[in-house]
């Protein structure tokens, strides 16, 4: 054990006012010489200081001196002497009959030094060992602050403080008083006990955790202890019956202070370490491994610890180089709680990384989601709420990393396949990720674009996403056609709902006296039972009726705008198809004039040879628009079918307005 310097000694750093021990000891030595007529006869060296003392006081109080000074008058105490020269000076003052000033800052060092010098009751009654034990039990261990001070002083007194059970007694006392703090009914009535339930639905924030801890002084005291002592206190809290929802937050607060806080490295630097020194990382790694041992695992942690905390630990473990087995253990713990995570909790690679697709963060996240799928998704891929949440979380994460220019389509498809498509109840986040990827990779081929977008199901898109997909020129033609059909179905359903919701309002307001041929019995049949009126006439409309009518009008306006936007998109596609068809006919005519068709060519005008020739003379780059990449030279029948489909879709709204020509239009003019 290293020698304790005067700066670190307990007695020297005591804040209590005390007399000059050195001057008092000199006075006692002189008085003893005058009273007995005996000169000093023993020389004791402790560290850099030398003490000239009398033999009789030392022999009467210390078994160590009585045994060591039989044949010599000079003695060097070992460098491991507890407390150093300052503590020995106070012990010597007691040997000369003076009362020793004891306080929580020096009692641990004095007790260990008295044990080293064998100052027990066998030599004299009321010796120092018994006196210091009585002070510890009756004074120190009954007070939170005094016990904390003694425990902190014991760090430099190991192994003596451990052998004398000073550390154990302090730990048990602190744990008992912490349990009493939790169980105090008056305190719980005035102020609730700190838990992590408030952080369960939020992204992890070190500053938010610091704010919580700042209101609990006793927790601040515990997390300021060295990890060895803190670990034993947590074990004592659990043994004494404290509930896990109160114990686990203390562990989280400790890790937040010593592992996750940005000031951790600054602390090691102020302690003589450099941030580049591997020893600093070793210290953080040791604490992190110890924290993982203290935290509850699996389902026990789901209700008391936010999953964002585990993600923060995982991020730190990557930076400091934690052992692989401990990182795998941490990843498995995160996988078991993944459906509670927030997007902000996930590990997103730094913007300065050369390639996101090859970063450690992305590989770690892929491993975590794969572990979740293996644990929670059965072979039948039965959909569930938690699986849908995880799938949406993964798609949102992909939308953050899809802009990486080095992300290949094949790698992006592998990431999509990490979570089975059956787990996705909504494809909105998937569409966002695809759109981000296509915007960042404009140079990919149409085949690659179609392969990447094959996962998207337009029937699982929301209304806004479907409208955006129709108008998105980066999407493949197949996807646009699917989105058009789905959007038309949505528009038809919206018109139907708006028509039903306006049944009462149109009959009552636009018909005046309700004499319309469409509503012959409107007053008796509709107004009396309308949910927007209370049986009153048209002149006494309620506020509820007016609000419902405004909502219905807004929905109809929105549906009309969506329909017009979709129709405009259809018209653009139809024009492009007409231009393509015309160009194909011109190419066919020019081809006939150049060479006489053979019998084989007359029978099969779309042979392999003509397809390759058409592709050569009509490159894809000459055609504008999102469907310009499709080669219609070999698919004329398919193009004609598309034209018929687009004409039918375009005429959808006009046929609906003709069928309802007897009802006044709420928009003022028929929709084309």
TrEMBL record:
A Pfam family matched in the record: NPH3
Record-linked SUPFAM superfamilies: POZ domain
Domain NPH3 intervals: 216-490
Pathway involvement of the protein, from the record: Protein modification; protein ubiquitination
Keyword hit for Coiled coil: yes
Domain BTB: 40-104
UniProt keyword annotations, A-Z: Coiled coil, Ubl conjugation pathway
The keyword Cell wall biogenesis/degradation is assigned to this record: no
Coiled-coil regions listed in the entry: 556-590
Record-linked Gene3D superfamilies: Potassium Channel Kv1.1, Chain A (3.30.710.10)
PANTHER family per record: OS12G0117600 PROTEIN
Family: Belongs to the NPH3 family.
Stated name of the protein: BTB/POZ domain-containing protein
Upper lineage: Eukaryota, Viridiplantae, Streptophyta, Embryophyta, Tracheophyta
């Amino acid at each position: 054990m290293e020698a304790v310097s005067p700066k670190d000694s307990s007695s020297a750093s005591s804040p209590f006012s005390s007399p000059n021990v050195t001057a008092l000891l000199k006075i006692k030595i002189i008085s003893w010489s005058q009273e007995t007529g005996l000169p000093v006869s023993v020389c004791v060296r402790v560290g850099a200081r030398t003490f000239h003392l009398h033999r009789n006081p030392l022999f009467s109080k210390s078994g160590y001196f009585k045994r060591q000074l039989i044949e010599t008058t000079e003695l060097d105490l070992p460098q491991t002497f507890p407390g150093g020269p300052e503590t020995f000076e106070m012990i010597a003052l007691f040997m000369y009959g003076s009362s020793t000033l004891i306080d929580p800052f020096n009692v641990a060092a004095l007790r260990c030094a008295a044990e080293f010098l064998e100052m027990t009751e066998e030599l004299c009654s009321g010796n120092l060992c018994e006196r210091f034990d009585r002070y510890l039990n009756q004074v120190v261990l009954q007070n939170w602050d005094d016990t904390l001070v003694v425990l902190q002083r014991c760090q430099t007194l190991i192994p003596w403080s451990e052998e004398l059970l000073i550390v154990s007694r302090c730990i048990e006392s602190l744990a008992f008083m912490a349990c009493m703090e939790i169980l105090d009914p008056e305190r719980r009535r005035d102020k609730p006990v700190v838990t992590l339930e408030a952080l369960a639905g939020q992204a992890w924030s070190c500053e938010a955790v610091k704010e919580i801890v700042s209101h609990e002084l006793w927790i601040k005291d515990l997390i300021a202890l060295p990890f060895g002592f803190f670990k034993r206190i947590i074990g004592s809290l659990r043994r004494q019956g404290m509930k896990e929802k109160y114990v686990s937050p203390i562990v989280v607060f400790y890790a937040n202070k010593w592992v996750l806080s940005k000031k951790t490295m600054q602390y090691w630097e102020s302690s003589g370490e450099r941030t580049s020194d591997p020893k600093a990382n070793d210290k953080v790694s040791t604490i992190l491994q110890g924290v993982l041992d203290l935290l509850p695992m699996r389902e026990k942690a789901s209700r008391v610890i936010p999953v964002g905390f585990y993600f923060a630990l995982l991020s730190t473990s990557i930076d400091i180089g934690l052992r692989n087995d401990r990182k795998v253990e941490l990843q498995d713990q995160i996988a078991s709680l993944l459906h509670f995570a927030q997007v902000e909790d996930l590990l997103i690679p730094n913007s300065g990384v050369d390639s996101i697709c090859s970063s450690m963060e992305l590989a770690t996240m892929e491993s975590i989601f794969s572990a979740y799928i293996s644990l929670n998704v059965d072979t039948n891929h039965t959909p569930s709420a938690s699986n849908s949440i995880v799938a949406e979380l993964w798609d949102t994460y992909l939308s953050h990393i899809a802009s990486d220019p080095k992300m290949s389509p094949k790698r992006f498809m592998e990431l999509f396949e990490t979570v089975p498509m059956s787990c996705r109840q909504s494809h909105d986040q998937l569409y966002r990720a695809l759109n981000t990827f296509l915007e960042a990779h404009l140079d990919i081929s149409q085949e690659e674009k179609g392969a990447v977008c094959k996962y998207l199901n337009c029937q699982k898109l929301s209304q806004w996403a479907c409208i955006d997909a129709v108008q998105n020129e980066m999407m493949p033609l197949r996807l646009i056609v699917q989105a058009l059909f789905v959007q038309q179905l949505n528009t038809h359903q919206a018109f139907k709902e708006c028509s039903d919701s306006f049944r009462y309002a149109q009959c009552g307001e636009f018909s005046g006296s309700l004499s319309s041929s469409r509503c012959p019995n409107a007053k008796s049949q509709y107004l009396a039972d309308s949910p927007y009126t209370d049986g009153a006439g048209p002149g006494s409309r309620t506020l509820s009726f007016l609000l419902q009518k405004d909502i219905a009008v807004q929905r109809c306006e929105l549906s009309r705008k969506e329909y017009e936007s979709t129709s405009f998109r259809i018209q653009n596609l139809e024009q492009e198809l007409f231009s393509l068809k015309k160009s194909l006919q011109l190419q066919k005519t020019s081809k006939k004039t150049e060479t006489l068709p053979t019998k084989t060519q007359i029978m099969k005008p779309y042979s392999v040879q003509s397809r390759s020739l058409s592709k050569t003379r009509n490159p894809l780059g000459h055609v504008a628009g999102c469907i310009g990449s499709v080669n219609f030279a070999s698919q004329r029948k398919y193009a004609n079918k598309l034209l018929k489909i687009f004409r039918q879709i375009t005429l959808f709204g006009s046929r609906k307005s003709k069928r309802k020509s007897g009802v006044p239009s709420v928009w003022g003019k028929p929709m084309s």
